[in-house]
Amino acid sequence: MKIYLIGYMGSGKSTLGKVLAREKEMDFIDFDDYLEGKEGKRIAEIFEEKGEIYFRKQEAHYLQELLEGFDNTIISLGGGTPCYGNAMERIKAAEGTSVYINVPVDELTRRLWSQRDHRPVLKHQNTPEKLEEFVRKHLFERSYYYNQAAIKIMVKGQSVPQLVNELGEKLF
Ligand code: S3P
């Protein structure tokens, strides 16, 4: 069994993935950590030193490694991973199940406001209003890819244990 968690930055992919993996005795991989380990650099540094196009190219490359190996694993993908090139097609064709963690824009904005300095895609949004406007448009564009996931979870105030339960019921 393999599970790919997809969704916008701040949607809780890693938090939920870790808890579910522990509960189901599966391994867990955070794709951002995996990519940082392979490149020997933080994502923010990769963006700064080599630019976003290089990052997206490496992201597409390492995605393939994750799609081909790692059985019995829950993989939390980067927010942009399914949205470039043919990544979503490759995810759908691979062994395993994709899950979209769908969080409303206002909640994403609240979560992301304090974290935007570490997130190269968001760091220029310097007021909560600008950030919300950006997230709204960006999520709208990306939803085309996210909505192709096999399973969708709508987040509307459930606690982490409730969401993990819901995920477990839909997946197992
Ligand atoms: C990105 C999301 C990040 C990380 C990078 C780009 C994006 O991952 O891959 O900063 O374009 O949405 P998380 O969604 O795990 O924060």
TrEMBL record:
It is an enzyme of class 2 (transferase). Keywords: Amino-acid biosynthesis, Aromatic amino acid biosynthesis, ATP-binding, Cytoplasm, Kinase, Magnesium, Metal-binding, Nucleotide-binding, Transferase. InterPro entries: P-loop_NTPase, Shikimate/glucono_kinase, Shikimate_kinase/TSH1. It catalyses: shikimate + ATP = 3-phosphoshikimate + ADP + H(+). Its EC number is 2.7.1.71. It comes from the Bacteria. It is found in: Cytoplasm. The keyword Translocase does not apply. Binds 1 Mg(2+) ion per subunit. Substrate binds at residues 32, 56, 79, 142. ATP binds at residues 10-15, 119, 158. Pathway: Metabolic intermediate biosynthesis; chorismate biosynthesis; chorismate from D-erythrose 4-phosphate and phosphoenolpyruvate: step 5/7. GO terms for molecular function: ATP binding; magnesium ion binding; shikimate kinase activity. Gene3D superfamilies: P-loop containing nucleotide triphosphate hydrolases. GO terms for biological process: amino acid biosynthetic process; aromatic amino acid family biosynthetic process; chorismate biosynthetic process. GO terms for cellular component: cytosol. Belongs to the shikimate kinase family. Catalyzes the specific phosphorylation of the 3-hydroxyl group of shikimic acid using ATP as a cosubstrate. HAMAP family: Shikimate_kinase. This is Shikimate kinase. It comes from Leeuwenhoekiella marinoflava. The gene is aroK.
